[in-house]
Amino acid sequence: MEPKNMVVATALTMLLLMAMFALFSSGTGHDKKRINTRQAKEDGNKQNQIKTSHPPGKGSSISSTNLSASDNNASAAPIPPVKTAPSFSSSISTVGYHEEICSKDELEQIKKDKEAAMAELVKAKEEWIQNKINDESLDITTREKYKLLNNQQLANGTMYMRQKRYSDAVKQFNEVINDETATPLTRYFALESIENIAKILKNKELYFTAARMRGKLVATEDLSVIGQEKKTDYIDWIDESEKLLNAKSKPEVYDRLLQETQQQYGDISAQRARDILEEKIKDRTLFFGEFI
Which tops the pLDDT comparison, 205 or 92? Predict the structure, then answer.
C-alpha cells in the first residue's frame, strides 16, 4: 500500500474509534441517570411506608423506628391496653397512721394466750423430767442427772455461762447453793461452775471460796453417784494451795509455811526447808498459773 493511502486509512480508523467511544460514554451516563432515578423512587416509597405504618405522635421520633419485613402489617393489629402495676405507696396512704391493727382487749388476750402456752410447755417439761427421776429402770447416776435438769437456777446459770454473762451466772449458782431444798449433787455442780468462772476471770478469792465449800461437800455428803468418795483430802489440798499462792505476796504466810516444812521433815537445815518450800510454791503456781 502506498504511503498516501496508509495515512488515509489510519485517519479513518481514528475517526471510527472516536465515534464508538462517544457513543459508549453517552449510553453509560444515561444508564446511571436511570439507576439513580429508580433508587430515589424506592427511597421515597420506603419513607412513605414508614410514615403510613407509624404516624408520629407527641414526642415520637421516626428515626428511632426500625421495622423489618415481618412488621409490615403490625399497624393493623389492635394495641392492648397497658396495665399499671399496683402502687404500694398508694395502698399505704389509704391506711391511717394512727389506726390500730388490734384493739387493747385483743392484745391483752394474745398476751394471755402466749403466757398460757408457755406455762403448758414448762409444765410438760417438768413432768417429763420427774418421770425420768422416778423411773427405777434407770441407774441412780442417770436419775440424779435428771434432777439437775429440774433446777431452774442451775439451768439459768449454765445458760448465762455460755453467753459469757458471768456475773449473772454466779448469782444464779449462789441461789442454788443457798437453796435448802437443793440436793448435795446440785450444789456440788453449782460450786464447780463458780470455780470455772473464777478461773476465767482470774479471781483468786472467788475461786478458793467456792473450792473450799465444794471440798466440805466432798468431805461430808454422799456423792458416790458421780464417783466421788467422801474424804477430806480435797479441802486440805485447797487450803494448802491458797497458802502457797499467797506466800510470795504475804511474808507472814511464807514464814509460817517455812516453820511447818521444818516440822514436817524433822531435822533439816533452814536452807533445806526453804528449798523444799520454794519447790512447792513453784509447782502449785504452775498448776494454777493459767487460771489464777
Answer: 205
